[in-house]
Write a structure and sequence with these properties.
The protein has 987 residues and is of the alpha+beta class. The protein contains 37 helices and 32 strands. It comes from Stutzerimonas zhaodongensis.
Length: 987
């Protein structure tokens, strides 16, 4: 506190004394007057007149800088109190000079910077170094923030006394925003480009690896082979006295929410000496805000500080002001001819920035001496300013300098002198960046066809475009990855030889033949082959594209997309192996089943007490037994129907049809139980309220278990929703209640309870579940209970304690498979003589429940609703026949297709389609889901009904389908089909 007060008192005293000496004055008209170093106490009259003329010229120049340029200039005393506020400051920030006189310079800083006393820190740095430059956010009078480049210089009189500070700000917001479009696509190299010859570093924070550019050797002597790529090497080369401070400051930015970092320290050169450096860095964060990379540049301050010290000793106060600003400044005298037309102009004075930005020193020269062919625009513009006094602001290209300039020109001094002051900046890089952006946008528009093709095909992993006349491929990163190529080569262009280099040798000849064939005829192209990726393994892909030709048939271009078919090929190969195995199995099935049945009858009691049977033996025996019974009923009923029709005895047909349909439904139910056990059934999960579902089933359960058993429900007051297939959950609850009934032959009680459960790590491990929140549905009975050895086998397929013929042994295994497929678990708690509790755990759904039970099939919908056009896609002719006849009888207009490519062509045509019904497993390169998704690219509101067996479940997934999509599992009844169709068309 005492130190700040002493600094304030010293600043006030110096400010007061300087005003008396003529160095500081009030108002915006003239904030600096230069003392004549050659003036004596009593100068002769002539010398006095010369001094006064020089003083007037200096004041005119100063006025041109302070009052006419569109940069903000602010003069403060040593304590940071504003004493002068330029017109440019009023224009940039909005406050008037009267409002800001006497205010502290921190007023124009943001609240965050004020809380960190950043203004005082910048002034202290400028006092130590003579000048400092920062870029940060500042405030306008209306509270808006703007990005500004601030150049702060400490001002001293000839005796070295500190007079105060000059702050020159330039609004860089527009330039910053204009460059972001380019920066976003070249983020890694943005700071390196701005750092010129500084030592640029790229720090990968994930693995603590640092990359340096060549300037590290040029500026500090460290050869690349001596530099370790770790962050530790960098820290070890920081002076020991600075190391902890730098480590703390840089990690404060990385570990916090900051983006930019800047600090100074001493860095050890290769020869052991230390360089004073200014290090600046910018943190790159991911979408969650975690720091991934930091890029920065290290500036050697040693020579710069020496040069600035010499400059402060040799330059006068006015020259200090001019050289503080980063913009080029010059005083120009315009020459007019006899007709008062501007024909030339001479540079009376110019600051060093002028030479830096133009690349030439024109002090005292006429511009036509350097650029005889200079555009007429410059003469007319400067001449108009000199004659009329109207300021000019513009951007224009100077051919002689081969650069773009942002120029501000104002008249100065006596109008008769025809002099103007010009302030300008080289904006060539920004204009070039804008041009690159326009070129990039044009390139993007040229790729529209490629993108549209990719979207239509579905399952796209990469795209290419082959210019056939030049044999150059341009590919995206996905294509390069699929072929194990460097993405940079794909941007530069590849030849066909380079592209096919990673194709499997066995597939290369076929690929070349297919390419030659499509080039010779033009049009569509599709081919599957294997390529080697970077990991050295081969993967199956499918290439789809087309060859475009000129009017005379000359091949011109060959764009296309890649589809990953590795999984599909694996599934097809597995299917072929399974088909061959099943064919071999069926050939001897009857004989093996008869032999196995005899063995099972003899060893039934022994097998029930043994370990789990081998899975294949269990499935084969159980399936053969049940399906032979069902097939006997179906085939026998069909034969009798044939016989009765031939005998014209039609009265008995209904009972045989009912018998066949009943057997078919039992076969479908057995299949669903098997799929549930294997967790391969097709589920239709939806958010449900389990309390509502149980309430709706209570009456059915009571009728099923009979009057000797009382059914009680205990409901959680606010149960968590669960996303589950409601019909399958109903079947599971009903099966559990039936098992409980069978365990209570003399009557008893069944309790159905719902509750919310939070499983910690230990509880979740015990239940074989992930830690989290679950809805628990428990069915408890007062029956005979189960022994531990029975509990251990309860979920085994075809295991049952009931006599032969009274149970398949699939009930509990179906419930177990359904729960696991739904992301949950089933657990048994039972004791002999005391009853059994079966608990189903389902993951909590974070949302609101939409339904409480499965909606009934809309089989009673009126046929008057049946209108519209339906596209049916299925590779099985019998299924298509069934769908066409059933829906055709309802009055729908029908279109059929046998594969995905034919179906997609119809979807991409102009034909009106109200509903798509498709199988999931289809030939033609795409499955039904991919075809539907591709169709929705051109028909966003396309309603879709998937009909599927178990094998395609991996394609559909267990999550909810998109809006307007439903799934129907094979086999299905005609009533169920028509109900689903009418339901979809009515929504």
């Amino acid at each position: 506190m005492a130190l700040n007060e002493a600094r304030a008192d010293a600043g006030h005293s110096a400010s007061h004394q300087d005003r008396r000496n003529g160095y500081l004055s009030d108002g915006n008209a003239s904030f600096l007057t230069a003392s004549d170093p050659f003036a004596a106490a009593n100068p002769p009259l002539e010398a006095l007149r010369v001094s006064q003329a020089a003083l007037a010229l200096n004041e005119a120049r100063q006025h041109a800088v302070f009052a006419s340029v569109e940069v903000a200039m602010v003069l403060t005393d040593p304590a940071g109190i504003i004493t002068n506020w330029s017109l440019g400051a009023e224009h940039v920030m909005g406050w008037t000079a009267a409002e800001m006189h006497g205010q502290h310079i921190s007023t124009i800083f943001t609240a965050v910077d004020r809380s960190h006393n950043r203004a005082d820190a910048i002034m202290q740095q400028a006092l130590l170094d003579g000048r400092t430059t920062v870029e940060c956010w500042h405030l306008r009078r209306d509270g808006q923030q703007f990005w500004a480049s601030s150049h702060l210089s400490a001002l001293h009189d000839k005796s070295g006394a500190h007079l105060g500070y000059l702050n020159v700000l330039r609004d860089q917001t527009h330039a910053d925003l204009a460059g972001r479009a380019v920066q976003e696509s070249q983020q890694r190299y943005r700071l390196a480009a701005n750092a010129t010859n500084d030592a640029v570093w790229d720090w990968d924070l994930t693995n603590n690896q640092v990359l340096w550019n060549d300037a590290l050797q040029q500026a500090y002597g460290h050869a690349p082979d001596t530099v370790e790529s770790s962050g530790s090497w960098w820290i070890d080369h920081i002076h020991p006295d600075d190391r902890a401070r730098i480590d703390t400051s840089i990690h404060a930015v990385i570990d916090g929410n900051g983006i930019t970092w800047s600090d100074e320290y001493r860095f050890r050169r290769a020869d052991g000496s230390y360089a004073d450096v200014l290090d600046r860095g910018q943190v790159i964060r991911d979408a969650e805000g975690r720091a991934e990379r930091m890029i920065g540049a290290m500036l050697d301050l040693t020579r710069m500080r020496a040069a600035e010290a010499a400059l402060r000793q040799s330059e006068e106060r006015f020259r200090t002001i001019l050289e503080t600003i980063d913009a080029a400044f010059a005083i120009v005298q315009v020459k007019f001819d006899a007709d008062d037309q501007p024909v030339d102009y001479r540079f009376l004075d110019a600051n060093p920035a002028f030479e830096r930005q133009t690349g030439v020193d024109l002090r005292g020269k006429w511009v036509t001496e350097y650029a005889p062919e200079l555009e007429r625009f410059w003469f007319d513009t400067y001449g108009h300013v000199a004659k009329t006094g109207e300021a000019a602001n513009f951007e224009n290209y100077a051919q002689a300098f081969e650069r773009w300039f942002d120029v501000r020109a104002v008249r100065v001094g006596d109008p008769a002198s025809r002099q103007i002051a010009i302030l300008f900046n080289d904006v060539t890089q920004r204009r070039e960046a804008e041009e690159r952006l326009r070129v990039s946008e044009a390139l993007a528009r040229e790729n529209v066809d490629r993108v549209q093709l990719a979207l239509a095909a579905g399952a796209i992993i990469g795209t290419w475009n082959w210019d056939l006349p030049t044999d150059r491929f341009t590919v995206d990163e996905g294509f390069a990855f699929a072929f194990g190529l460097d993405p940079a080569l794909g941007r530069d262009g590849l030849s066909l030889e380079q592209v096919v280099e990673t194709v499997h040798p066995e597939d290369r000849a076929g690929l070349m033949g297919a390419i030659a064939e499509v080039i010779s005829r033009g049009g569509a192209y599709a081919h599957q082959y294997r390529v080697r990726r970077a990991d050295g393994n081969y993967y199956w892909i499918e290439a789809n594209g087309r060859v475009d030709c000129t009017e005379d048939g000359t091949p011109l271009s060959f764009p296309g997309v890649l589809i990953d078919v590795e999984d599909r090929r694996s599934i097809e190969a597995e299917r072929d192996r399974a088909t061959a195995a099943l064919r071999a199995l069926n050939e001897t099935l009857e004989q093996r089943v008869a032999e196995r049945t005899a063995e099972l009858i003899q060893a039934e009691e022994k097998l029930r007490q043994s370990q789990k049977m081998e899975a294949v033996g269990q499935l084969t025996g159980g399936l053969a037994h049940d399906f032979n019974n069902l097939l006997a009923g179906i085939s026998g009923a069909l034969e009798l129907i044939n016989m009765r029709i031939a005998q014209h005895r039609l009265d008995d047909i209904d009972k045989y049809m009912a018998a066949a349909q009943g057997a078919a439904k039992r076969a479908a139910a057995l299949t669903h139980r098997l799929l549930a056990f294997s967790r391969r059934q097709t589920l239709d999960p939806r958010p449900i309220d389990v309390n509502m579902l149980v309430e709706g089933m209570t009456e059915l359960i009571q009728r099923t278990v009979g009057p000797s058993i009382r059914v009680q429900t205990i409901k959680e007051r606010e149960p968590w929703p669960a996303s589950v297939d409601a019909s399958q959950l109903e079947n599971a609850i009903l099966n559990l209640c039936i098992n409980s009934r069978d365990a209570m032959p003399d009557g008893g009680q069944i309790t159905i309870e719902t509750s919310n459960r939070c499983l910690d790590r230990s509880a979740a491990h015990a239940y074989d579940l992930p830690e989290g929140q679950y809805l628990c549905l428990c069915v408890t009975d007062t029956g005979t209970g189960m022994a531990p050895n029975i509990i251990a086998k309860a979920f085994d397929p075809f295991f049952t304690t009931k006599p032969i013929g009274q149970g398949t042994g699939l009930g509990l295994s179906m419930i177990y498979g359904f729960a696991k497929q739904s992301g949950g678990q089933v657990r048994i708690n039972s004791e002999v003589g005391k009853g059994t509790a079966m608990s189903i755990y389902l993951p909590r759904y974070h949302g609101s429940a939409a339904i409480g039970a499965v909606d009934p099939d809309r089989s009673t919908a009126t046929l008057a609703e049946a209108s519209g056009t339906i596209l049916i896609v299925d590779d099985e002719p019998s299924v298509r026949l069934l769908l066409m006849d059933a829906l055709g009888d309802l009055g729908f207009s029908l279109i059929e297709a046998a594969d995905s490519l034919s179906g997609l062509k119809v979807l991409q045509s102009d034909v009106n389609i109200d509903l798509l019904i498709t199988d999931v497993g289809l030939p033609g390169g795409m499955n039904g889901r991919q075809m539907a998704d591709a169709g929705r690219e051109v028909r966003p509101n396309l309603k879709t009904l998937f009909i599927t067996g178990y094998a395609e479940n991996a394609v559909l997934g267990n999550s909810s389908l998109g809006p307007g999509m439903q799934v129907l599992t094979k086999p299905f009844s005609i009533d169920t089909l028509t109900g689903r169709v009418l339901e979809l068309l009515s929504t």
